[in-house]
Amino acid sequence: MLEPAVARQLRQIVGQRHFRDDRESLVAHSYDGTPMLQHMPDGVIYPESTEQVSEIMKVLSAHRVPIVPRGSGSNLCGGTVPIQGGIVMVMHRMNRIREVDADNLTATVQPGVITADFTAHVESMGLFYPPDPSSMRISTIGGNIAECSGGLRGLKYGTTKDYVIGLEAVLASGEIIRTGGKLMKDVAGYDLTKLLVGSEGTLAIVTEATLRLVPPPESKKTMLAMYKDIYGAARTVSRIVGSRIIPATLEIMDNPTIRVVDDFAKLGLPRDMAAILLIEQDGESATVERDIERIKDICASEGADRIDIAESREQAEKLLTARRSAFTALARLRPTTILEDATVPRSRIADMVLRINEIAAKYGVSIATFGHAGDGNLHPTATTDARDKEEVHRVEQAFEDIFAAAIELGGTITGEHGVGLVKSPFLEWKVGAAGVELMKGIKTAFDPDNLLNPGKMFAKETRKRVVIDRG
Amino acid sequence: MAKTTEELGNPLKKSLIAKLDYDQLTNCMRCGFCLPACPTFRETGLEQESPRGRIALMKAVTDGLMEPDGSFRDQMDHCLGCRACEPACPADVKYGQLIEQARDAIEDHAERGPLMTGVRRLFFKSILPHRNRLKRAGSLLAFYRKSGLRALARRSGAMKLFPEHMREMENVLPDATGRGVLERIGEVYPAKGEKIARVALFRGCLMDVLFAETNVNTVKLLSEAGFEVVIPPSQTCCGALHAHSGEMEQARELARANAKTFRSADVDYVVSNAGGCGAFLVEYDHLLHDDREYAELGEWLASRTVDVANLIVERGRLPAFAEAEAAEPVTITYQDSCHLRNVMKSSDAPRRLMRQVSGAHYCEMKESDRCCGSAGIYNVTQPEMAGQILRHKMEHANETNARYMLTSNPGCLLQMKLGIEKHGAKGRMEAKHVVDYLYERIAAPKE
Fold first, then answer.
1. What is the spatial distance between Cα A58 and Cα A170, in angstroms, rounded to a whole number?
2. Candidate from A73, A328, A385 with C-beta closest to B90
3. Closest residue to B26, CB basis, from A25, A73, A335
4. With contact defined as beta carbons under 8 Å apart, do B94 and B21 qualify?
5. Which residues of B touch A24 (CB under 8 A)?
6. What is the ipTM of this complex?
7. Do B193 and B269 belong to one domain?
8. Residues B278 and B386 in one domain
9. b/e sequence B379-409, b meaning 16+ C-beta within 10 Å
10. Per residue in A200-247, pLDDT tens?
11. CB of B71 within 8 Å of any CB in chain A?
């Protein structure tokens, strides 16, 4: 429960309508895109300027009230569930695109702008912002920065961190800092910009961002390759990159995913295939044609059973349907869908997919895997029912094993979704005890009273690492 | 989830628990993909004004996290019911069913003054389902207009007694008629040329009183396209307005009557020209699912119902449509009927027909797939939000510079007329039902 004096001060800052503590508002901000997590906040606030955010933080830190900044709440790691109550700060009203600077190829935006709206805006000006998380139609740039979101174009173009070059942010104390700028080179002190990207709202509240833009590719070509042998698919991935071709998109779907997608979209996919690769190249037309030709040869020499190359945009759309339907098809199977993002070095993709299939069989749960083969970022997706506690427990055990397997293969527990609440017990597996301590030190330097998104990133206890017995 | 007796103390909560489909509530995985599709979320930016938020509220009530209070009820009423969230949902959550269930439960405990109760009973029970009474109401309205009573009422300032949005609506209402499609062209209308199929016209209740001419044009257009059309006289109101307002039992009663009537009409299809009605008919299978006697009939009608544009495009012989010769092509644009698009999944067929018209230039309006704010009787019950949505809609409409704003549902048509009157190019833009527009432009006209 919020002290009435605090609520009164918050209302004075943002106005009556933009601070809410009625039951409906609290319930509607008690969850995010992560299954099975819910906790009530004590209030919801909608600031409209950096100054308001700063004023709010002064009040909250004086009264030691926790704050959870968020955009649309579509993250998948429990990152914006107000697990310790306090105030949820929704950034939707700060949604202006302040400037697109064609001379410096930068854009300056407020955090609440919707990613897809921003992308469409810069594209209408003949420019390109590559990060494309699947939730981009609803996610905000601020949320993307907090989670360092990836997307389908990560392999060639990188992720959010590669495009954020300057930030304005409000500290827990209410002080306003500025990092970076419209600068391609800047080594003045520690790189606070990169530190804040992916900090999940635990260090500061981003109130403005300067983003790097690039010229858009001239043309694009799409193809599908299908394999009976998953190692053939995996070797294809390695050989494409080894041949110094970096495709714009290089996606994989495993056999369980192919079956589910075919049931759903009736695409007539061969159900006995172990893997399908979706490959896109963009750039200058001549280069694209040449790359696709060479990729086709590599697919054929690695034993692809079928290779489809789209000759038109409509055909390309058809080929893309299979990959685009993956999440939808899986989400309709069972009431609860748990989408993870274990990531391994590109060369270990096939091993990882097979390990996931083994683990799923071991626990008797259904997990299908699709994802970004080109950058090693996989999405093992479990379909279950939150009401079946026993099954959910087995799913959780399976995911523990999957995280452990990813680490063992030289990978990480999360490639693009973030640690949040869900993966905090496993953070130490990846960064080690000393790493966690160091990170906690950074957290304390920014936020000594632990008010910014408390309870995230660092778990009370690290999960005991299971030793996997694979006989 | 176990409920304590205290939790069960609130009677509305009890009804909500009984009526809400908990499986559907669980199916929502809270990904948030529905948010950008939702008009009320877009207007307010508030999570509780989104489908994900409303489902979370319903679930919180059934889980015992929240009492269903006044603002819960208001929130359920705020939903337009446009169902644009359903095609956006990866998990196929039946949001339309959930909001109907919530409203049905709320209706069981509605606290209304005797006047509103009386008005609702008159409207839902005594007028809509009764052809003759609706006709008389239509004649009365026509008489009110033509006799000069309306002019008198307007001059005397009596209209000022009504809220502003009601007055505005009254302004754009067309002349009502007591002579519906059946009275004008009889029970059976032959196909032109070789008969492709025999179809029944679903004439609607308000449609046949306010837009009887559109019904007549629908029949004639179908005939031109090769269909024999019958108009079973015992058909009644589809029940959509009842269901959207929480009067589920009455909706089912009407559904049973219609299912029986059309099944015995010996037709291949049941054709609708109103997205709102058609969308309700195609869900009779769900509505009558638990009715042992009528479930099969409900399924039959649901599977045979088709929108007029779809039937013509998919099975008909396409007549040639043409605008009158002019130096410049006439610009036309289209506002989707939400229920036609999101529930009947028909958005391509009407556009294909409009693109066929020679001498006309079809210009797609920005966000033509978004609700116009009419939403059944929403523009009467939630005038503020409806007005806001309409204002934004008309900004896009004006950008098209269209001569004709076409649509596929009477409610949308009235809202578009209102929009043109209030914010639009009055005198330069005209709202029309797509069927009327097309029929009037058949190149070598009918007899």
1. 10
2. A328
3. A335
4. yes
5. 48, 57, 66, 71-72, 75
6. 0.93
7. yes
8. no
9. beebbebbbbbbebbbeebbebebbbbbbbb
10. 999 999 999 999 999 999 999 999 999 999 999 989 998 999 899 999
11. yes
